[in-house]
Every structure is written in structure tokens, then in C-alpha cells.
Amino acid sequence: MSLNCSSPMDPRSQFAVRLPRDASMDIIMSPNSQNQIGSDGDPKERIRRLLQKVEISSSAYDTAWAAMVPSPPAAYSQQRQQGVVPHFPECVNWILENQLKDGSWGLQLPDSRHPRLVKDTLSSTLACVLALTQWGIGEQLIHSALGFMERNRGSLSDPRQWDPVGFDVIFPAMIHTAGTQNLNLNHHLLLGNRESAPSPASGGRNAYLAYISEGLGASQDWGTTMKFQRKNGSLFNSPSATAAAAIHLRDADSLRYLRSIVDPMKGAVPSIYPHGIMARLCAIDNIKHLGIDLHFQVEIKQALDDIYTSWRQGDEEIFLDCATCAMAFRILRLSGYRLSPYALTRYTEDGFWSDTLEGYLKDEKAVLELYRASRIMYHDASVLENQMCWTRDFLMQLTDPESCQNYDVHDVLNYPLYVELEPMAYKRNIEQYLTDNTRMLKSSYSCANFGGGFFLKPAVDEYNAQQSLHLKKLEHLMQWLQEHKLDEMRVAKMKMNYCYFNSVTTFCDPSLAEARIAFSKSTVLVSLIDDLFDIHGTREEHLNIIQLFERWDVDRPKVDFCSEAVETLYWAIHSTLCETVEKAFPTQGRSVMDHVVELWLDMLKAMFKEAEWSRTNTVPAFDEYITNATLTIGLGPFLVPALYLVGHRLSEDAVKGTQFCRLFNVTALGCRLFNDIRGFEREAEQGKVNAVSLQSIDQNNNAEQVIKQTEIWIKNLNREVLRMSMDEKDYGVPDAVRDVFWKFVKGLYLFYAKEDLYFNSTKLIKVVESIIKEPLNPPIAT
């Protein structure tokens, strides 16, 4: 082995630059370990910091390429020129001080090297060897590094190893350069002759070649390459590619970009910079997916405001990166910010997407984010439909979604946006959580914002605390059934389990226990009243319960009870309404009893009309039926009283206003249509009409076609609920109230997506018990 080094054995002080780290930096660098920085202390405090800053590992590979940039700017040559020194001596110093014990440079986990990163480590180590050899220093380090490479050369042909982007071009090029520097590596035995880069072509191929510029060197088409230079001076925010431009072109903007990294980071260079917007988005996404966002609302709002400002300013960090653009769109839109989808729709399968670096690399992460974003449709559904189709097809071709080990792809394909019920999603996300935050570009890197065990602990604690609370509240509700003799009625206990579960998915905020209780009680009562009108009640009982509400009195009824069943139900409803109204008074500043009683009376009268149709074999017109049926579904009596308990004032003008009424009516209509398409066959056997049978008559169509049309109608209604729920203009309706409607709609998909689970108790009990009773089985946090 021959070394072309003129310096002493280990002259580490030649380019040493020792500067204290600035604690106020927006990016915090870690020399090797993905968990070294901020790993101690309260996990919540660390997460709070990650919403403001980026914790990212340094890249030996990119640092080495920055270290190879000469100063004053001069063309790269095979021989060291007299008087030429490193433009970034801090980077050389970093290499001298950060070789690992085994002689390598690269990303290292706290306890061991990642088993699939040996090939990546060989690339980083060789880049560091070239940098030290260029400046004639670190002979002892080079000797140790070459020993590491010799011992691990078998990993170059190991199919289990992760390939850095462009490895098949860049690594052979570095081997060639090592040969010109008299470093006898003998790696031709493993790699054969140096591989040539693919011939330049248009679109994505040109982007790819620009991205791996350091592997092409003087043979690069620099005129085409520099068309990809960004406003910050970089090529694709890649320090290594930008360093190649600085070396071969003496490009001032490239040097300015590299200096913006090296100065604040004291010589350590990351794999990608800037990366702050994506990192903060990932931290927010982690927090929301694990169900701990209530602990960080202030910090999340500040981060989202910053990102929204960047979006409106057309920040290249967002709009020149497909995954960042898609994730920003999804998270911002779901958080109530108004954004046009047209920034995403340019990524068509056979259009702009194919001209991007991500498109050329068939970047699964980018496609996954595009698919997730395309599901956030409002009135602009047609704009995003095509994108959702091609991205879904792309992901489906990657793997079998039923057996996929990639949980992100599996979940997004198997759990559409409308069925992502928070408690179920939180449990699934916690149990499948991957604490490894390693990513691969041209070199591997880790970013704490992407995830880690410290996210998991508060999530597990929060979930366990909420499950314990739910068990206690469910026990309280079962006692309430007994106190009011409702447990003697048909399937009341079973219905309470379902209704409380529905309350948990609708009122997810842990502080909304009172709203969940009111919702659960009212939902059970509406269900029992429905049975009275629909199954076993008499016409006399129907009229009796209506009269009791028409002459409502908070103290004692002014009408006699005609049966024990009516008396039992009335007093249970009376007690629940009085309790709910009393608890709502401090927040609302008024009694809402009149409104609540009005909602109940409207439903009861609509149920009576429906019962009369059945008794007289009357077939109503579809419009008459649907107007009446949106009342009989019972949304007013069981949802609105609970809305008064969400902790926000809901004024009388607001609940009578256009937006609240439309939000309510669209939700009620979707609920009714869902109920009717899943209950069509059962009700047809009973001789009852519903939306499906009446449309079949009107359209002279078979039921199957009507159901398909109605499902499209439901989908559009739900998109409208989503739009109104997330609209940043509240029109006097608080965000928390509007959010309840969207969560309720998502719950409908659980109960009605494929069948009416209210009539399949076995399946529904399993779902309820999995959230309310079954213990969490989280992975071991690392």
C-alpha cells in the first residue's frame, strides 16, 4: 500500500479550528450517533425543542467532499498545488477528530453500527481518505481506514446492504481517484472496471446526474447541471454535489452555500441542508399520529404558522422537494390553513413527476406523501382524483398491502382518511412505531425529528391514562343504566358499549369527558326511542311521548304516562337533559334547555310520521322521505347537547346560523344515507321503505346501481364536512365544535363502511374491546 503523504504521522493541529457550539442554532449537529444530542431529560421537553430546531447527524461523506474544496478557488487536480489549502479547514479538522474506533467514518448507533449500513460506511470512509490524502495529512488515520475497508469489502456485494443513491457511479469514481493518488486499494477485484454514468438525457435523468455530480467530476455536463442550482447556491440542497460544483467551476454561489453550513456547524456537514421544514413537519406528524398533540399545541401552531408563511412565499425548500410539498399541503390543510392543490397536481405520472429527481429514483416516500395529500379533497376533488389514482397504483405495485412490512404504505392503503379513527390509529401507530430514524440519501443520516423512542414514552403514558379513564366512565354509564332501569330494556347494555366507543372516537380530546358522557347517554336513549317507534311501541305510546315533550316541564310532566315503558324512557331523558343543560350553563352563559327539547321534539314527530307511513302502507316521495329521515337519524338529540360541553361558547346565533346548520344537515344526511344503504335488505324484508328503495322506484334502477350512486353521494357529502370542519373561517362556530362533526363522520365509516355493525354485535364488540379494554403492546423504546 503506497501513500502519497508528505506530512508527519498525525498532524491534527495543522487545520484545527476549535470553536464553541452556538446553542441557539436552528440545526443541532450530532457527530455520529442519532441519539447523542438531547437524549437526556424529559421526553416532552425534547419533543418541544424539535418543533423549533432540527437534530440531524453529521455526514462524514458530505463533510469529506466539503473538505476537498481548495482555497483560493482552483480547479481540482490530481496533485496538490503549491500554496493551495482547504477552503474549509474546519471540515478537515472534523475528519481528523471523528474517525471511529474501527477505522471508519460514518453513522453509528449508540451500541453498534447499523447492520445494513456497512456499504454506506465504506463510501463515507473512502471519501474521508481521499480528503486527507489530498491535503497530505492523517497517514495513521488513512492506514486504519484502509484496514477497515479491506476487512469489510465483502459487504460491497451483499444484497442485504442498503445502497446509497448513486453508489454504482460515485464509489467506482472514488476508487479511480484513489488510484491516481497512489492508494493501492485492490477494490477492482470487487467492482471490476469503473462504471460509466448513463448518457445524459432530458428530465429526471439530468436531475439525477446533477445530484451525483461528485461521481462524474470533469466528465460532468456542468452547463446542464448548473440549471438545477437553487437560490441558496446548492444543487438539490446536497452539500456533496454542491462541493463538486465548487471544486470544478470555482462557483461563488456554491461556496457561499457551503460556508452557510460550515460556519454555524463548526465543520460538520449534514447529508442535506436546509432540511428544517421537512424535519419540523415530521415532528408534527409524529406527535399527531401518536396522539400527544394536545401537549404541544402552542409549539405546533407556531411551527405551522412559520411553514405556512414559507408556503405563501414560494420557498424552494418546499416547492422543489416533492415529499416536503405534499406533507406541508396535507398537514397545513388538515390544520385549517387555506392552500391551493395546484402545487401538487403538477406531479402527474407522465408529466413533471418524471422530470424530477424523485421521479427518476421512483422515490416511495415521495409517492406515499403525494397519495396522502391527494386524499385531502374538498370542492377541488377533480383536481386531486387523478393524482390519488396513479399514486395508489404505484404503491400497490410495490408490495402486497395485506402482507406489507412497510407499515406506512400498508396503513395508508388499508385505512382511508375517512376511517382513521383517532383512538384506533393511536394504538396501531404506537404498537407499530419504528424508533429507528435512519434515512438514506447519498449517505445515511439520522434525524431526531423523524422519530425515536423519546416520542414513544409520552404516547404510551397518554394512551394508558386515557384507557383507564374510559373504563371508569363506562362503568359509571352501566350504573346509570341500572339506576334508570334501562338495563332491563332490550340490548341496552350492549348498546352502551357501542355508544361510549362512538363518543371516544368523536370527542377525542381527553378533557371532554363530560361531552362523552352526555353523548353516550343521549345516543342510547335515542336508540331506545327508535325501538319504541320502530319495533314494539304502540301508536298511543308514540303520541304520549310526543305530548310529554310538547308540554315539557323541568319539574314534573303535565301529561300522564300511558305505559311503564314511556315513563321509564321519559324520566331517563329528563334526567339526562337537565344534567347536560346544567353542566353547559357556565360555559354557554345561558340555559340551552329550549333548544335541546326542540331537537328532541323534531325527531319524535319525524319518527311518528315514519311510523304512520308504515302503519298505512304509504310510500312517500323521495324528497319527503329524505327530509324527514335526516331528523329520524337522531343527530340533533345525541350530538348537539354534547357540543355545548366542549368548552367553547356556542351562541344562539351560531347554532341558528348558515354554517352550523349546513354542517349539521350535511352530516345528518350522510349518516342517514349510510344507514339506509347498509340496512336496505333488512328493511325491505320488513316491508319498509328507505332511500335505496325509493330511488330505485324513481329512477327505475336496480338497488345495486342505486347503492353505488349513493356511495358517491356520501363521499361528496363527507368531503364537504371535511372542508367546512377545516375551514380557517369559523363563522362564529368554534374550531373544536366543527372538528367534532368531522370525527363523527369518520366514525360512521367504522359502523357502516361494509355492513351495519350495529347488527353484527360480534365484530363490533371486538372493535370496542380492542380500544377500551385490551392493553397496549408497544415496541421497546430505543
UniProtKB/TrEMBL annotation:
InterPro entries: Isoprenoid_synthase_dom_sf, Terpene_synth_N, Terpene_synth_N_sf, Terpene_synthase-like, Terpene_synthase_metal-bd, Terpenoid_cyclase/PrenylTrfase. It comes from Linum trigynum. One of its GO terms (cellular component) is chloroplast. It holds the Pfam family Terpene_synth_C. This is Ent-kaurene synthase. One of its GO terms (biological process) is gibberellin biosynthetic process. The keyword Ligase does not apply. Residues 221-403 form the Terpene synthase N-terminal domain. Its cofactor is Mg(2+). Keywords: Lyase, Magnesium, Metal-binding.
